[in-house]
Design a protein that fits this description.
The structure is a single chain. The protein is mainly beta. Helix content is about 5%, strand content about 50%. The chain has one domain (about 5-35, about 45-425): Porin (Beta Barrel), CATH 2.40.160.10. The longest helix is centred in the C-terminal third of the chain and has 16 residues, at about 310-325. The two termini are about 20 Å apart.
Length: about 425
């Protein structure tokens, strides 16, 4: 979402926390909030190629699998101020335990009607959050399990209008037509920036439709209306940034039921107030290297988590559904994208941009499920031979601490224990 320029400056540290692949997810050049028209037509974007290898945990496939994908972001701004924003992810080699379907992340047109009014129509990204590892206010976009940090930025189709009456205030209105996705409805949001105080705050309300698989008869979900209030903010003081995301929703997100699984009820959560929240910090550290390193730490309270009894019931249903040969016909159904996670408390920390030399960066990160005895450790190595090009290698190890075979674990949703990715990214 375009914000006042001051808000972009507050986010400068946040941008440094993104991995190399984020260049392929970027859809705008610097000066995002400005609606000034260029003197001539401008073309920019990025592309990446990625190879992912992982060891499958499923009973049917025990060997290592490899998947390849490529992504392309193409953006065009005419001299008249009309912009085309597009972003594609295309699997090159499919592996059923690793790959997504072809994803059209973004295909939209943006028009600056004036210096203070902008319209965006088409498939676009509508996650307004500030968090870098977990997300709590991503109500408008399909979300991955928060313990699987690989982004699935599918985007949603709709129309967004942005009004920026002053340098410290902006408003956004979004209309979403009904579709096959989980969401339809609308959203409104206001952003406040106090540059002198280092504050950037956002408040919004969302009305959408959720597909309830728990009450589904066969494979047809029930449609339920949902209303959510959301807030996010960042406070910057020198090299330190503190930020938060909060979402208050009425009605539990019941994506835990899978098509053709045994019945797993909603447990009476349709009118229940559900809170999800993220608190985090980013700190630039001078380690005496070529550039400052970045320390990131986040805590997630996942209000959609399951109790011990609920998670055991789900684990039993999942095992029975798996043993019956996946009668819905999908190894990892789309319903999984609605799962907020099994438990409620997660903690993550990362040390990034550790500059060995001018071109070589190291990073390390970890996620710990405080109430699920689950952990993920990630190591990254990035080589940036030019400002526009990077080659990155990332290794991740997932581990669950189990007392016995009957104990459920988040690994039910992650079909591998080791994962390695090699990514080449270039921008133009």
């Amino acid at each position: 979402m375009p914000r006042p320029t001051a808000g972009l400056r507050l986010a400068a540290l946040a941008l440094a926390a993104l991995p190399a692949i984020s260049a392929a997810e970027s859809s705008e050049p610097s000066g995002q909030g400005s609606s000034s028209k260029p003197a001539e037509t401008k073309l920019w974007g990025s592309a990446y190629f990625q190879v992912v290898a992982a060891d499958a945990l499923s009973a049917q496939v025990k060997k290592w699998g490899v998947a390849q994908e490529t992504g392309l972001a193409l953006n065009l701004r005419s001299a008249a101020g009309l912009e085309l924003l597009s972003d594609f992810v295309i699997p090159v080699s499919l592996d059923r335990d690793l790959s997504l379907n072809t994803v059209l992340q973004q295909l939209a047109v943006r028009l600056a009607l004036s210096d203070s009014v902008t319209l965006v129509a088409g498939k676009q990204r509508l996650n307004w959050g500030t968090a870098k590892i977990f997300s709590a206010i991503d109500t408008l976009e399909a979300r991955a399990n928060p313990i699987d940090v690989r982004s699935i930025l599918a985007g949603v189709a709709g129309v967004k209008a942005v009004f920026i009456p002053t340098d410290w205030l902006s408003f956004s209105l979004v209309g979403l037509p009904a579709s096959e996705l989980r969401y339809s409805g609308g959203a409104a949001r206001a952003d406040f920036v106090a540059e002198d105080l280092g504050l950037d705050l956002g408040f919004g309300v969302v009305k959408y439709t959720h597909l309830d698989w728990s009450a589904a008869a066969g494979t047809t979900p029930e449609k339920l209306d949902r209303v959510a209030l959301m807030s996010d903010g960042a406070w910057s003081a020198g090299s330190l940034v503190l930020y938060e995301e909060t979402q208050l929703r009425w009605g539990r997100e019941t994506g835990y039921q899978l098509p053709a699984m045994a019945a797993f009820n909603d447990l009476g959560g349709r009118d229940q107030a559900v809170l999800r929240g993220v608190g985090g910090m980013m700190l630039q550290l001078d380690l005496g290297l070529k550039r400052p390193a970045l320390l990131v730490a986040e805590y997630l309270y996942n209000g959609d988590g399951l109790t011990t009894g609920e998670s055991r019931a789900f684990a039993a249903d999942y095992a029975a559904w798996q043993d019956s040969g996946y009668p819905s016909g999908a190894r990892v159904p789309a319903a999984f994208t609605g799962i907020g996670g099994f438990r409620r408390h997660y903690l993550s920390a990362a040390l990034q941009n550790v500059a060995v030399n001018r071109y070589l960066l190291l990073g390390a990160s970890g996620i710990l499920g405080l109430d699920s005895r689950f952990s993920r450790i990630g190591l990254s190595l990035e080589w940036d031979p030019t400002q526009q090009t990077s080659i990155a290698f990332r290794y991740e190890y997932y581990m669950a601490f189990l007392d016995g075979a009957d104990q459920p674990t988040e690994l039910l949703l992650i079909p591998f224990r080791h994962r390695a990715a090699l990514t080449f990214t270039t921008s133009y």
